[in-house]
């Protein structure tokens, strides 16, 4: 493979001692240490790049360090759970420069007293290839390795290695895994284990069970990386204890079953199901039934596809004239450690999408709730035009984010209507957004951007925005009401968003406050939305205008101008008694709805959000004083101070989930 990549190979060393036991591993390291000094003396490299945590890499790092050669270590700071941890951290202490893949790994390196300025958080280089891997002819690869009758998502990839600190148990676990795979009865590609101690015994188990001749199994020693990518990307499941399962496979959302303790410390995406005590065949079989055939959002914990350019930039910045002696930064370390290093400054951010009745907005939102850049277009009337515009705007925003040094962690979407957030599907929408029923938003965006995607109702997003950035921050229980074109809201209970059994919680606009009130867009009548929404105020404004009762001195409506709620509010401010009465009635209806909420949910705070909130706040408080039980009259009602709650709420879904592992 190295030859195929056209590297200029100066020296070939044979250092692996056969035997596949602990002694053979030690002898391999010793043999490499004997042979490497002559090679390094001849080559005189400026920098030695050492990758990973294998015992042969330890020999390279040891030789280079003792011969005063600068070492750049890639993928340091990670935690897995085997002897590899010790080797990885030993190489870290020998290395002068560090390229890590995750924020946690960066924090570990800093905790290990490595110099902050010599650490680059770049992401995993393999993700550069994974996230750009598009092979339309993947079926030919699947057929080549698994047979002509195998379909995409209908096979398993199995890759299991010995655990050198507990060889006996890892062999037993491998035997149980093969038994479970035989019982599960799906076509399976089994890769031979690596050459660590215990691998010889694992191969014996394979042969004892006849895996190489079993009709459901294909046993191979090696698959070229480009083909392996396609095989795991389109597998129904991957099983084993390889780091590939918890790292690279997450890029495709392929389900993974991680067995035993070999990767116990790794950060993983939601696609990974752990079976740490894989001590029975039944446990492994149950895990296969749970995971096989699922599709998860793509995970970018280990990279965003731009690692190699960052590493090249980092390499070019190294001053070969600076002193070679390492400096260690012993505690106390800096309290606010971030990615702000001289070589690259990136802001953890989210792409937020707000689908309104009129406009479609996309924004880059930082961890602190700052809207770095916002894009606005008219919301198209048809599904096809709308979904294409969303994809186009998100792709453009993601490209712009790179220029703005913003690292996009995922996409959050706020939309009107009833939403199933678990599946990322708009079940059915409001009348304002046409052709928007039973729409899967997660899949097209995740496939296009290679990012995880979250979707929720706009009212719920407003509540999430208040929880993270607004007046609900730190509160256990509160309610948000949106007053805009329609009326919506969200409920936070015990710090969590409430969706309800059919994703219909917090439809406050359709609380009935009058048995004989005006018709509502939902088909009922007397709803809060029929009184207090922007549409309701527009309806009343048109009635007044048609009767020449809207305009007062200081007002005018142009010939082609549509009468709206704005004109009604303006007329009320200028003393129009009928307009004032309509606003009072609307505010009273909203106030009665808030009283019902106080009596039903008993939150500690009610937040009014949206363009009409400030016009209703005083009337709502008056209604509470007059109508509510004394036990809830002290609950505070406030106007939101967030400018874009829908966008901030959409962003918070991404930021809260993707950063929960490092908070």
TrEMBL record:
Residues 5-316 form the UDP-N-acetylglucosamine 2-epimerase domain. It catalyses: an N-acyl-D-mannosamine + ATP = an N-acyl-D-mannosamine 6-phosphate + ADP + H(+); UDP-N-acetyl-alpha-D-glucosamine + H2O = aldehydo-N-acetyl-D-mannosamine + UDP + H(+). GO terms for molecular function: ATP binding; hydrolase activity, hydrolyzing O-glycosyl compounds; metal ion binding; N-acylmannosamine kinase activity; UDP-N-acetylglucosamine 2-epimerase activity. Pathway: Amino-sugar metabolism; N-acetylneuraminate biosynthesis. GO terms for cellular component: cytosol. An N-acyl-D-mannosamine binds at residues 418, 430, 458, 507, 510, 529. It is found in: Cytoplasm, Cytosol. Zn(2+) binds at residues 510, 520, 522, 527. One of its GO terms (biological process) is UDP-N-acetylglucosamine metabolic process. The active site is at 458. It holds the Pfam family Epimerase_2. Keywords: Allosteric enzyme, ATP-binding, Cytoplasm, Hydrolase, Kinase, Metal-binding, Multifunctional enzyme, Nucleotide-binding, Phosphoprotein, Transferase, Zinc. Its EC number is 2.7.1.60, 3.2.1.183. Homodimer. Homotetramer. Homohexamer. The hexameric form exhibits both enzyme activities, whereas the dimeric form only catalyzes the phosphorylation of N-acyl-D-mannosamine. In the N-terminal section; belongs to the UDP-N-acetylglucosamine 2-epimerase family. This is Bifunctional UDP-N-acetylglucosamine 2-epimerase/N-acetylmannosamine kinase. It comes from Odobenus rosmarus divergens.
